[in-house]
Amino acid sequence: MAKKKQGQKQAPQPKQEKEAVTLADQLGGDVLAKLKLAKQSLVAEEQAKEEERQARQAFERKQREKNMSFEELLDQYGDKGSKF
After folding, report:
1. pLDDT tens digits for 13-54?
2. What share of the chain is helix, strand, coil (3-state, %, to 5)?
3. d(C-alpha 13, C-alpha 15), whole Å
4. CA gap 7, 59 in Å, rounded
5. 43-69 pLDDT, tens per residue?
6. In the Cβ-directed half-sphere of 29, how many Cα atoms lie within 13 Å?
7. Within a 10 A sphere around the Cβ of 66, how many other Cβ atoms?
8. C-beta separation of 76 from 68 below 8 A
9. 59, 67 in Cβ contact below 8 A?
10. Residue 14: Cβ within 10 Å count
């Protein structure tokens, strides 16, 4: 018994004659530059706010610790402190 060879049929791939137009292509160079500058300023502002928030948290933590009684400090740190 002979096996029949079947030719593999490939579906024709449609050619993309139209190139994909991106938003950057549609916008002018000047507008794109302004948008990039605005993005950089927003990122810098976000970083400054985050640093300020962290500094404020550290300050508040120190203030709470400063106002703790000896008993609260002993409960919190116990024997973890160094011996002088």
Report:
1. 555 556 677 777 777 778 888 989 999 999 999 999 999 999
2. 65, 0, 35
3. 6
4. 77
5. 999 999 999 999 999 999 999 888 888
6. 0
7. 7
8. yes
9. no
10. 6
